[in-house]
Amino acid sequence: RPGDRALLLLPNSAEFVVTILGCFYAGLVPVPSSMPGRYKQDQRRVRGIARDAEVGVVLTGPDERGDVLTWADTEDLDVPVLIPDVAPAPLAEPFTPHAAAPHDLALLQYTSGSTNDPKGSQVTQRNLLLNALRELGFNAFAPRGAYYIITDISGLNAGDDRSFVRRLVQEIGV
């Protein structure tokens, strides 16, 4: 249902891009995370994210499914663990994509949790669009009709809030 949260446990890959775009299309709120891994602190971090975000489903890849199922069982995470179909068969009935409003929640993005419990940030559809435009070189804050290319992005680093959008734009190849 639109607004439900989906924990994404996928490597950086085309599957990640397809899955997150599918979430947007269906109106789900993606919650991207690193894999639980074999270390307790990594497992604790992902458990904290899943519980804080109140996820209703975990989406993962076929290669990761076994490890994710084991982790979910260990953590008593009682939600379905699914593998998105990246090449689905045609639908029997037409599907209407979710029509998101600018103020709607687009995704939940969490801190690493390296110094404390992971903290979530709510990213709205408007935030996501403006960050995507910035990553593509447009200044969305310029006066109407006066967009220009931003040439100095040296201040951006992998740890800032735009890293998600940067990764998505790079994966799509825009």
Describe the structure in your own words.
By secondary structure, the chain is an alpha/beta fold. 33% of the residues lie in helices and 16% in strands. The protein has 5 helices and 6 strands; from the N terminus they run E-H-E-H-E-H-E-E-E-H-H. The strands form 2 sheets. The chain has a 4-stranded parallel β-sheet, with helices on both faces. The longest helix has 14 residues.
List the helices and strands and how they pair.
Layout: E1 5-9, H1 14-26, E2 29-33, H2 40-53, E3 57-60, H3 65-74, E4 81-82, E5 105-110, E6 120-124, H4 125-135, H5 163-172
Parallel strand pairs: 1-2, 1-3, 3-4
Antiparallel strand pairs: 5-6
Rg:
17 Å
The amount of helix comes to 25-40%
Largest sheet, if any?
4 strands, parallel
- Structural class, judged by helices and strands? alpha/beta
Strand order of the largest sheet: 2-1-3-4
Gross geometry:
globular
* DSSP E strands, number: 6
Helix count from the secondary structure assignment: 5
Oligomeric state: single chain
